[in-house]
Amino acid sequence: MYITKIIYKNYRNIEYAEIKPDREVNVFQGFNAQGKTNLLEGIYYFACGKSFRGACDRELVRIGQDEGSVTICFSDEERERTHEVRLFSGERKLCFKEGIKISRMSDFIGVFRAVLFSPEHLSIIKDGPGERRNFCDIAISQIYPAYMAALSTYKKLLTQRNALLKEPETVGFYDLIHVISLQMAKEAAFISAHRDRYIKRLHGHVEHLIYNMTGGMEKVKLSYETLLGEDEYVRLLTGNIEKEIMAKTTLYGIQKDDISVTLNGLDSRVYASQGQQRSIALAMKVAEGEISNEICGEYPVFLFDDIMSELDKNRKAFILTGLYDKQVIITGCDDIRTGKIFNVSNGSVLL
Ligand SMILES: Nc1ncnc2c1ncn2[C@@H]1O[C@H](COP(=O)(O)OP(=O)(O)OP(=O)(O)O)[C@@H](O)[C@H]1O
Ligand SMILES: [Mg+2]
Fold this sequence. Notes:
The chain is α/β, with parallel strands linked by helices. The protein has eleven helices and 15 strands. A six-stranded antiparallel β-sheet has the order 2-1-4-5-6-7.
């Protein structure tokens, strides 16, 4: 899959830009605060349905304007496609597929697939379990739309259950919580099985990548904690209600899970160096792209924001070689002389 054209209008600090990326390596170069990450954010919007930097839609509209938009044209094995999102300072966004309005952004997810790596992704290794769950949730959603639907149902049920646990005097409380718990257990088992399968697959790729990157010196192990079946979730969610009333929240379920990442047997969050952490996070992203290709039959577009700064020469070369013949868009990399170079200055893009 590759992008043929992107048009930005009043998006962040970009008044207007039209970019035609090359099929292989593309580099966005420029000084700080010129709009390089904004350009990638606009592309990744179509892969995950929101800003990867946690901004809300109205913050993406150029300050002082009422409306902004991003249009992306891309080709997959079947055909050329056009997706557009129009963002407003005061109203909800509008999404278009081939010019036809769609009601939900989720209709985009899985059609345009991209893998993004930015400095914030170091948090996959450095921070708490939420970051790792988020990583695998976005990755799995892009390849299995049913997973995203299950996750969204589960989150709604969890919100209801938590609200109910704060009001145990509600009429019919026990019946209600029982019904919600059974529904949640079904979704939880589905989600947990998918996560476990995905992490096993990811592990195979990451272990191999890091092993080769370090000449066999570093061995990474990824594993999903904790795979449970529906019966076990039913038991946990129906058997601890008094404890949960005391805690005023749901104490069990897939919202508590973690992915363990060890390097040579030690917890990488605590023991790995900054460069090692970055290498593992990056390898997880490259592996995400490999799995996407295995399942969908085509590579996604790789978006790399400022990734090279903490990698030594050998690791850098290893990553770039592995990305040969895939579409890659990299920012902030002065030492890359290959590919199509775009200069980004004050929101304008020049070839
Ligand atoms: N809604 C907006 N309207 C106008 N300008 C905005 C908006 N949102 C962000 N900006 C501006 O965009 C610029 C930042 O762009 P961006 O993060 O893409 O920079 P960058 O080129 O990636 O820089 P760096 O090399 O430091 O990462 C900032 O100057 C910021 O003020
Ligand atoms: Mg940036």
